[in-house]
Amino acid sequence: MRWAVSRQKSLVVVADESGVVAFVVVHVERGGVGYVVTLDVAEEWRGKGIASELMQRVEGEAREAGCAEMVLHVSTGNAGAISFYERIGYLRTGIAKAFYGVGGDGWVYRKTLEGQPES
Fold first, then answer.
1. Residue 89: domain span
2. What CATH number should be reported for the domain holding residue 71?
């Protein structure tokens, strides 16, 4: 995790309610792509809209960094995350076999960022 947040082209957004309750890490990749490395919300804070707010904020930061789209992977067995990402506009575009190791396939999701700044 330390490597993920220390990369030069990382965007990190944290929700802090008297302590870290959620965070998202996005890498700005070549070709104008923001890659969501991780999104985590403490269990007791789930269902309160924090993940949606964090994603909205980091998508804005990615757009400002020149990204035209966001990409992420979700475990094929993570129904909650699949539902969340689809609800906020991500489209399933493929599958990455063994992305999470042996037997751990991941769905590939993408979202076009509206209002991407002109180059």
1. 2-112
2. 3.40.630.30
In the chain, alpha helices (H):
2-6, 50-64, 79-87
Q: Is residue 56 part of a domain?
A: yes
Instruction: Count CA within 13 A, CB hemisphere, residue 13.
Output: 19
**Is 118 inside a domain boundary?**
no
Per-residue pLDDT of the chain (119 residues; tens, 9 = 90+): 444 444 456 677 666 667 778 899 999 998 999 999 999 998 988 999 999 999 999 999 999 999 999 999 999 999 999 999 999 999 999 999 999 998 799 999 999 998 755 54
Classify residue 117: in a domain, yes or no: no
Report residue 92 CA to chain centroid gap.
14
Question: Which amino acid appears at position 58 of this protein?
Answer: V
Number of domains in the chain: 1
CA 106 to chain CA mean position, Å: 14
Q: Alpha carbon of 5 to those of 41, 79, 98: distances in Å?
A: 16, 26, 24
Q: Which of these, 43, 30, 38, lies nearest to 58 by C-alpha position?
A: 38
